[in-house]
Amino acid sequence: MLQQLLQLIQKFWDPWIIFGFAAQFVFFLRFAVQWWVSEKKKESVIPVAFWYLSLVGTVMILAYSIRQKDIVFITASILNAMIYIRNLSLIHSKKKAEKIVVNPTDGKVDSTVIESSND
Description:
4 helices
């Protein structure tokens, strides 16, 4: 029993195990950020940082899963990454559609969203 405990403790200091824990921590941070922003705004919000942390954490977990040869987590990480990339793509395409417009009557700057012609 003591021998098994010592082996477990030794595994903890393996660089890949530490990397795996770091990956899980980055992935967890996305929820901490989402919670913090939601509390600040007093409503449920999913900030852009949530999607970036999701993607970074998933890529780290993917690297760890490949090293550990875990097909379940490899598959899940690839599918998750596709969703996160798509959400970031949607966010950035919306930002590209935003234009700054100066109101000709009072000279104030207004931010408006220009609808694309293929919507």
